[in-house]
Design a protein that fits this description.
This protein folds into 2 domains: 2-111 and 297-314, ATPase, nucleotide binding domain (Nucleotidyltransferase, domain 5, 2-Layer Sandwich); 124-293, Nucleotidyltransferase, domain 5. It contains 11 helices and 11 strands. The protein has helices at 29-33, 40-62, 81-98, 107-119, 160-170, 177-185, 212-224, 232-258, 273-286, 295-298, 302-314; strands at residues 2-4, 9-16, 19-27, 72-77, 102-106, 126-131, 136-141, 150-154, 262-266, 289-291, 336-337. The strands form 2 sheets. Strands 3-2-1-4-5-11 form a 6-stranded mixed β-sheet, sandwiched between helices. The chain has a 5-stranded mixed β-sheet with strand order 8-7-6-9-10, sandwiched between helices. Strand 6 (126-131) and strand 7 form a beta hairpin. With 339 residues, the protein is of the alpha/beta class. 44% of the residues lie in helices and 17% in strands. Bound molecules: 5'-O-[(R)-(carboxyoxy)(hydroxy)phosphoryl]adenosine and zinc ion.
């Protein structure tokens, strides 16, 4: 059983031997919309309300009962402290009551593991691009649970998803910004505004990311609004194109530098239709295999946490100490926290 409560989604999933048996998701997204972002206390209260019903719905979909559960995995970090605590407390209660081992896992390792549910085990070596609301990193990945994950680069400022959310707000599109920009951009011209491609100059870190300057460029453009012929959809499409261009250029460069032939893109922003399409185009041209989880497994969910838990169990990992706590800010170096 995997439990995910790091942000505004209450996710529960059941995975056995790399196969997703069933999962369920409850979201407090609508309750945050009028604040323009996730309110941690509201998210935590919503997790508390939704957790047990979500467990039961996931059990029903998986066609199993609680007595079939052999281990519990839970997101221990990173995420919102208030939200993480609810999931960790619930996971401890289930593990104790069922007498099964408990694993505190890293949320981002879960995002990567989500891909294995669709495409099978990862190859011996791959490059991972994690793009979520809070993180943007290029990673050298080997075995997800055995080998330390090496960061090739991390964003210097905003995460890609954060940029989508902030830009959506700037141009008057509803929260969450990623899906609204994706939708609006389908009606816009990606070449309407030539937004900058941050950190792509000759003296810049070739794998480095920065999105706050791009966000400011959109803000300046919106303030000035010189060209009445440019629509909100055009701005959305042009911004999205800049992000897709930078992410895919750098991810492919990382593959070349690491001499690997598999790129795995995960996290909420991997649900973006333009990023998926451009990555596919560029990987095809470079002879690199592209793996991206199906859209519903890109954004936060319980299946991905069950997936990483299942990998740990099958690898014989030692369970986490029963007194472990959530760690709201924790860098990704491995699948398990609080071992
Ligand atoms: O991984 P995730 O669900 O939660 C975190 O761990 O942060 O990612 C959420 C982020 C949000 O910033 C959201 O706007 C973005 O993923 N997102 C998208 C799309 N769907 C979700 N960004 C761009 N295009 C999308 N279709
Ligand atoms: Zn996430």
């Amino acid at each position: 059983m995997g439990i995910e409560t790091s942000c505004d989604e209450t996710g529960v999933g059941f995975v056995q031997g790399g196969v997703l048996l069933g999962d369920a998701l409850a979201s407090s997204m609508d309750e945050h919309a009028r604040f323009g972002g996730v309110v941690p206390e509201i998210a935590a209260r919503a997790h508390l309300h939704s957790l047990v019903p979500t467990v039961h719905l996931a059990l029903e979909r998986a066609g199993i009962t609680l007595s079939d559960v052999g281990a519990v995995a839970v997101t221990a970090g990173p995420g919102l402290a208030t939200a993480l605590h609810v999931g960790v407390a619930a996971a401890k209660a289930y593990a104790l009551a069922l007498g099964v081992p408990l694993y505190g896992v890293h949320h981002l390792a879960g995002h990567a593991a989500a891909d294995t549910l669709e495409h099978g085990p990862l190859p011996d070596r791959s490059v991972g691009l994690i793009v979520s609301g809070g993180h943007t990193s290029l990673l050298a990945v080997r075995d997800l649970v055995r080998t330390p994950i090496v960061h090739l680069s991390d964003t210097l400022d905003d995460a890609a998803g954060e940029a989508f959310d902030k830009v959506a707000r700037l141009i008057g599109l509803p929260y969450p910004g990623g899906p609204s920009i994706d939708k609006a951009a389908k009606l816009g011209d990606p070449t309407a505004v030539a937004f900058p491609r941050p950190l792509t100059g000759p003296n810049d870190d070739p794998l480095g990311f920065s999105f706050s300057g791009l966000k400011t460029a959109v803000a300046r453009y919106v303030e000035a609004r010189r060209d009445p012929g440019v629509s909100t959809e055009d701005i959305a499409a042009s911004f999205q194109e800049a992000v897709a261009d930078v992410l895919t250029t750098k991810a492919l460069r990382a593959c070349r530098e690491q001499a690997v032939d598999t790129l795995v893109i995960v996290g909420g922003v991997a649900a973006n239709s333009r990023i998926r399409a451009l990555a596919q185009e560029r990987c095809d041209a470079a002879g690199i295999e592209l793996r991206i989880p199906p859209m519903r497994l890109c954004t936060d969910n319980g299946a991905m946490i069950a997936a990483i838990g299942d990998l740990l169990v099958r690898d014989g990992a030692r369970p986490s100490r029963p007194d472990f706590s959530a760690i709201p800010t924790i860098e990704l170096t491995g699948a398990q926290l609080a071992a």
